[in-house]
């Protein structure tokens, strides 16, 4: 890396790190949508790196983006109140830095969200521009739906039906060449047929249908590979060569999906965490309580249960965006970080570019 630490037994060369940072930053700029002349900006401002700074000077918001490599000229931005270029939200993607309390007041007046996102995509802090509270009627609806087994079952059946339909679309669009394609497609079709012709009588029945479908769906991912460059000088671990399974070998006997050991799973974990963060923000804006789930319930689920309800039908869309990202890019070992515990994480510049791709493809 830039500070000379080692990776896979080799001394990191600053010029390679700088090259990869510039590569992903240029792709982010190229993919940024253009604002129509009389319309407001619709895409977020994404800041990353070290020494990010936000302050108010003579009524204007001054922003300094972070340093991601050296040497680098720090990007400076200025926004005035009511400016059409003002982003709907500012995302602080990992990194370090500071902002003054007057910035919070300024953003609230301009109705701009400030979101701090960790390296794994999870939302650490969200500052709401308008201080939106929950809507008592919407929270009441959430609670009533969760307590009424008939309503809860209908809700669960509907969102899992949408999820399986979206999974079939992703499968056909991105994984049709997989040797497991036909088996996975048949499993998803059978699951959809079962949900329609033999409606589940319990929530357990819904999960019993969805579980095997998910297994066959990710089985079709086996063999998904990334295109690599520079592997002779910077070899990659064997586990990075191709996608093997969704669960991680680092999570013990009862395998879970966190602690990714390869880039594909690291992208999936990051993508789902970004989706979770975006849906949490949207739910709060609309007045829902993220804690009161319907399919997923708080008493047997850790986390914001309602957000995981909302995520279900959108997960395959995130998958499609990630598969598109993988197919459209050539990667380098320096785009990722191998931690001491064997966990693979995304580099900051790559994660920012992936974030933009996911938002664009999933209309977030």
Question: How does this model look, in words?
Answer:
- With 364 residues, the chain is an alpha/beta fold.
- The protein has 2 domains: 88 residues, CRISPR-associated endonuclease Cas1, N-terminal domain (Ribosomal Protein L15, Chain: K, domain 2), CATH 3.100.10.20; 227 residues, Four Helix Bundle (Hemerythrin (Met), subunit A), CATH 1.20.120.920.
- A 4-stranded mixed sheet has the order 3-7-9-10, with helices on both faces. The chain has a 4-stranded mixed sheet with strand order 6-5-4-8, with helices on one face.
- Strand 1 and strand 2 form a beta hairpin.
Characteristics of this structure?
globular; four-stranded mixed beta sheet; alpha/beta; disordered N terminus; 2 domains; Ribosomal Protein L15, Chain: K, domain 2; single chain; Four Helix Bundle (Hemerythrin (Met), subunit A); 10 helices; 364 residues
Q: Please report which band the strand proportion falls in: under 5%, 5-15%, 15-25%, 25-35%, 35-45% or over 45%.
A: 5-15%
- CATH architecture classification name of the largest domain: Up-down Bundle
Radius of gyration: 22 Å
Number of helices: 10
Biggest sheet character: 4 strands, mixed
Widest sheet: strand ordering: 3-7-9-10
């Amino acid at each position: 890396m830039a500070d000379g630490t080692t990776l896979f037994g080799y001394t990191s060369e600053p010029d390679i790190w700088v090259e990869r940072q510039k590569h992903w930053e240029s792709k982010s700029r190229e993919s940024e949508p253009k604002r129509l002349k009389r319309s407001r900006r619709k895409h977020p401002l994404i800041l990353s790196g070290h020494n990010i700074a936000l302050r108010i000077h003579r009524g204007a918001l001054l922003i300094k983006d972070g340093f991601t490599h050296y040497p680098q000229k720090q990007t400076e931005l200025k926004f005035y109140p009511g400016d059409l270029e003002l982003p709907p939200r500012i995302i602080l993607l990992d990194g370090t830095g500071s902002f003054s309390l007057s910035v919070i007041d300024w953003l609230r007046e301009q109705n701009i969200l400030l979101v701090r996102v960790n390296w794994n995509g999870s939302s650490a802090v969200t500052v709401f521009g308008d201080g939106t509270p929950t809507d008592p009627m919407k929270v009441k609806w959430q609670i009533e739906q969760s307590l009424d087994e008939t309503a809860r079952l209908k809700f669960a059946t509907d969102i899992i039906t949408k999820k399986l339909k979206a999974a079939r679309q992703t499968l056909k669009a991105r994984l049709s060449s997989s040797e497991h394609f036909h088996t996975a497609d048949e499993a998803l079709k059978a699951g959809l047929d079962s949900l329609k012709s033999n409606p589940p009588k319990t929530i357990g029945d819904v999960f019993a249908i969805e579980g095997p479908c998910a297994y066959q769906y990710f089985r079709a991912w086996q063999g998904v590979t990334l295109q690599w460059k520079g592997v002779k000088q910077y070899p990659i671990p064997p586990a990075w060569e191709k996608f093997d399974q969704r669960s991680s070998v680092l999570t013990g006997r009862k395998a879970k999906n966190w602690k990714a050991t390869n880039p594909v799973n690291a992208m999936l974990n990051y993508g789902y965490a970004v989706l979770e963060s975006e849906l949490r923000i949207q739910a709060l804006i609309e007045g829902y309580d993220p804690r009161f789930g319907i399919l997923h319930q708080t008493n047997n689920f850790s986390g914001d249960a309602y957000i995981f309800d909302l995520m279900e039908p959108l997960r395959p869309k995130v998958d499609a965006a990630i598969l598109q990202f993988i197919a459209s890019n050539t990667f380098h070992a320096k785009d990722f970080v191998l931690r001491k515990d064997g966990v693979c994480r995304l580099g900051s510049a790559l994660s920012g570019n992936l974030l933009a791709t996911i938002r664009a493809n999933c209309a977030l």
